[in-house]
Amino acid sequence: MTKLGQWLCGLLLLGSAWAALAGLRLPAPLRQALLPLPVYLLVAFGCFSLATVGFRLATFNDCEEAAAELREHIRAARADLARRGLRC
Amino acid sequence: MAGGGNDKFSVLLPTYNERENLPLVVWLLARTFRDSGTDFEIIIIDDGSPDGTQEIAEQLEKIYGSDKILLRPRARKLGLGTAYIHGMKHATGNFIVIMDADLSHHPKFIPEFIRKQKEGNFDIVSGTRYKGNGGVYGWDLKRKLISRGANFLTQVLLRPGASDLTGSFRLYRKEVLEKLMEKCVSKGYVFQMEMIVRARQLGYTIGEVPISFVDRVYGESKLGGNEIVSFLKGLLTLFATT
């Protein structure tokens, strides 16, 4: 099954469970919690996504040392290649 | 020593206008492999660069010998996927390393790739900017945000089991790369992504090594609106078809 298919199956499953529960004669407080549940889930997922991307953005490594080391290596490479007769 | 035993590593370097960078990356590769006592060859596939990359490549072939540097140029720009196929036809190693020739990928990580491969007997070892000590240099906040956002979206939609899908610093078993090249049809960033997705489908194992990605020291880095749109199209295509 494709990833799209898996998503549709998952959503269909959750959606029908929700619809079935919503169709039952539940006590009022339960019902009040149940009806907006899909919206809550969507909002929660949105928050989770923002938090995850935000955290990973803030902790994305800046490889200053790697860049400095590369510049050093480039100097060494240039010198050695010139010695070996490379004409740039 | 992190020697590769009887293994031989063929590095594929597709180039287009890399006159400045090519000698440097070849020098770093040669030093890295010699220091670790690993058998290697470098296959340079130049797509008719107008800046004279091919002429520099010929000089490198003389300096390092035609057993270490193999020149397999093509007449014009034909894309990355076909460059790999073209280069692989001439590869004599049992492992293939693919990387960018613009110095954003440092050859020093290759011994770590090799160690990782041995450790888990992996079919593929992929460099990752998103884990452990991995990271980037030379990206502004916007570029990082796009990268992180795109990566998160990809993880959610495809659940690929690898953290860096758009990176192109990887080690493959030769027969695995051959098999994947038959299957993969996308271009650009999506091509690297499709390789990992197909690899999972075919049941290949993937190991990961954190790498630092130092954005192009010489030359222009490319990420425009077009790239983002084609990335999203490619992602959705993979989402709907795999």
UniProtKB/TrEMBL annotation, chain A:
Keyword Oxidoreductase: no
Keyword list, A-Z: Endoplasmic reticulum, Membrane, Transmembrane, Transmembrane helix
Principal subcellular localisation of the protein: endoplasmic reticulum
Subcellular location: Endoplasmic reticulum membrane
GO biological process: GPI anchor biosynthetic process
Membrane topology type: Multi-pass membrane protein
Matches recorded under InterPro entries: DPM3
Listed GO CC annotations: dolichol-phosphate-mannose synthase complex; endoplasmic reticulum membrane
Pathway: Protein modification; protein glycosylation
Membrane-spanning residues: 35-55
Top-level taxon in the UniProt lineage: Eukaryota
Subunit structure: Component of the dolichol-phosphate mannose (DPM) synthase complex.
Function of the molecule: Stabilizer subunit of the dolichol-phosphate mannose (DPM) synthase complex; tethers catalytic subunit to the ER.
Family recorded in the similarity comment: Belongs to the DPM3 family.
Protein name listed in UniProt: Dolichol-phosphate mannosyltransferase subunit 3
Organism the protein comes from: Melopsittacus undulatus
Gene symbol of the encoding locus: LOC117437270
Automatic annotation (TrEMBL), chain B:
Keywords of the record: Endoplasmic reticulum, Glycosyltransferase, Magnesium, Manganese, Metal-binding, Transferase
Subcellular location field: Endoplasmic reticulum
Catalytic activity: a di-trans,poly-cis-dolichyl phosphate + GDP-alpha-D-mannose = a di-trans,poly-cis-dolichyl beta-D-mannosyl phosphate + GDP
EC annotation from Swiss-Prot or TrEMBL: 2.4.1.83
UniProt pathway: Protein modification; protein glycosylation
Keyword Transferase listed: yes
A Gene Ontology BP annotation from the UniProt entry: dolichol-linked oligosaccharide biosynthetic process
GO molecular function: dolichyl-phosphate beta-D-mannosyltransferase activity; metal ion binding
UniProt main location, coarse: endoplasmic reticulum
CDD domains per record: DPM1_like (cd06442)
An example Gene Ontology CC term for this record: endoplasmic reticulum membrane
Gene3D superfamilies xref list: Spore Coat Polysaccharide Biosynthesis Protein SpsA, Chain A (3.90.550.10)
Cofactors required: Mn(2+); Mg(2+); Ca(2+)
The protein's assembly and partners: Component of the dolichol-phosphate mannose (DPM) synthase complex.
The family this protein is said to belong to: Belongs to the glycosyltransferase 2 family.
Functional summary from the UniProt entry: Transfers mannose from GDP-mannose to dolichol monophosphate to form dolichol phosphate mannose (Dol-P-Man) which is the mannosyl donor in pathways leading to N-glycosylation, glycosyl phosphatidylinositol membrane anchoring, and O-mannosylation of proteins; catalytic subunit of the dolichol-phosphate mannose (DPM) synthase complex.
Protein name: Dolichol-phosphate mannosyltransferase subunit 1
Organism name: Melopsittacus undulatus (Budgerigar)
Gene from which the chain derives: LOC101870884
